[in-house]
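Notes from hallway chat w/ T.B., transcribed later so I don't forget. T.B. wanted the structure written out for a chain they're using in a teaching module, and asked if we could keep both sequence and structure tokens in one place. Agreed to drop them here.
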Amino acid sequence: MKTATCKLSSLSPYSQSRFHDTEKLEKENADDYEKRTWRNRLHVDDAGHVFIPPMAFKNCIAEAAKFLSVQIPGKGKATYTKHFEAGIMVVEPLTLPDKADAVGGQWFFVPADGRRGSGKRVKKCFPMISKWEGSVTFLILDDTITEETLRYHLEQAGALIGVGRFRPRNNGFYGRFKVEEIIWEESE
């Protein structure tokens, strides 16, 4: 097994839309409920810091591999897709210095059911973090994935796929990032 500790930094704002099922207060209308609970869309650790879930990065690079469909040299038409889907793990979140209660939000008029083009629209507030950076450790379980292969796919993932709500892969532009550094190590 190998580990790749990747220092990443944002190229665009980051927004989250975690599901929450906070109960409404008695006689609370939809607007008041939204004003009271919108920060519940954040992923927050026990210390109150916002974090980016590990699966966001794992799924981001796996989706980039599928999107790019780069063929493995010497393996015919085989691509790296299945190797990135099954052969890497990210087990630790990227904890940001931002405290949940200090994160600002942006209000949007969005489809009530979350589907683009559907009828009814409602006002919703989504948390917005303008800049972020930190290190994410990828555990490489598949020897087919080399340092160069990981770097290329991660760079493309940051540019074309992104993380969070309204990312490029979902017709948005938030959640883009660049790769500052990769420390590649053999481990047991």
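Follow-up for T.B.: The chain has a mean pLDDT of 95. Might be a good example for the class.
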